[in-house]
Amino acid sequence: MQNSLLSLLILALFWSCNDKMVFSEYEPLKDGKWEVDKVVHFEFSGMDSITPHNLFINIRNDDTFPFSNLFLITELESPSGNTIKDTLEYRMTEPSGQWLGKGLGSVKENKLWFRENVVFPDSGVYKMNISHAMRKNGSVEGVHILDGITDVGLQIEKSTQ
User: Fold this and answer.
1) Residue 6: helix, strand or coil by DSSP?
2) Residue range 68-107, pLDDT digits in tens
3) Nearest CA-CA partner of 53 in 150, 126, 107
């Protein structure tokens, strides 16, 4: 019986490994509050310069997140200094108000497509900055403290294409 359980555990461990995963990192946000001037920063290096990669932004939110969508500003800087800046919008709920994402309980994790089939031709350190750009409808001024975002992550996987 003990050997069967051990064998199942080892099998589950091997099965759960993601051989496509190249980079995965999260930054927790203090008390689930994302300040407008708080830029979440990631650095990664040692990327395969031939294989295309898919990039994802991972967001963990709880029930205090007050919006049905999320606006993000991203900056991806290569080691040569070239920077690509984007403003992105992601849907966080169904029209019914039900949270998208995975997870039990009040925290949901959303794996959001950022870029597809990216090749990293330069060797060295790549830098990724993510900030939020939320504002209330009809308001010019942005939301200074965005409640309900507990963690922001960056995930890079080898493309299957």
Assistant:
1) helix
2) 999 999 999 999 999 999 999 999 999 998 899 998 888 9
3) 126
Cα dihedral 85, 137, 134, 148 in deg (nearest 10): -150
What are the backbone dihedrals phi and psi of residue 93, each rounded to the nearest 5 degrees, phi first?
-135, 160
pLDDT, tens only, 27-77: 999 999 999 999 999 999 999 889 999 999 999 999 999 999 999 999 999
pTM above 0.90, yes or no: no
Q: How far is CA 18 from the centre of its chain?
A: 17
Say how far apart CA 133 and CA 32 lie, in whole Å.
16
Contact 72, 152 (CB under 8 A): no
The DSSP symbol for 78 reads: -
